[in-house]
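Re: the request from the purification team.
They wanted to know what the chain is likely to look like in 3D before they choose a buffer screen. I agreed to run a prediction and write the result into the notebook, where they can find it.
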Amino acid sequence: MQTHAPVVNAFPLPSGAEAEIDALMQAFFSVFTNKNGVKPDLDAIHRMFLPQGLIIKCNGAEREIYTLQEFIEPRRQLLSGGRLIEFQEQEVSARTDIFGSIAQRYSIYKKSGILDGQAFQARGVKAMQLIRMDGWKLVSLAWEDERDGLAIPD
C-alpha cells in the first residue's frame, strides 16, 4: 500500500503535477521487474532521466556513481542472465516536495527476488531530484538499503 505525505507547493502548479511524478516513479520502479516472466525494460530509464543523469548507490562509506549507461548494462545482464529471477521492486511510501519546476522525492521501497538461488527481501530509501521540462524528468537518484546498524524507522 502506498502512502504519501502532502506535497509542498510554493507556487501554483499545473494540475496533475503530483500525479505525473507518481506515475514516473511507478514506471521507474517497474523497469527492473522480471517476476512472473516479465521482461525488464531497462532502456526506459533513458526516457525518464535527463541524458546527463546520475545514479548513486550508497553502501555505508562506499559510493558507486554511475552514468545511465554504466548503471543499465550490469543490471541488464543480472536481470536477463538468470542470476536474479522473480525480482520486483516497489515504492511503499513517498514524500514529494515541489517548488516551481523542481521536485525532490524520498521513497521507501521494498524489493524481493531470488539471487543465485537464494530468496531475499530488502528495504531501502531512494532520494530523487526531478525537473519539469516537457513533463517531469529525473536528474539524479541516490539510494541506500537497510543493513545492520541502519534501519528505516517504523
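For the purification team: Residues 9-14 have pLDDT under 50 and may be disordered.
Please add any questions underneath this entry.
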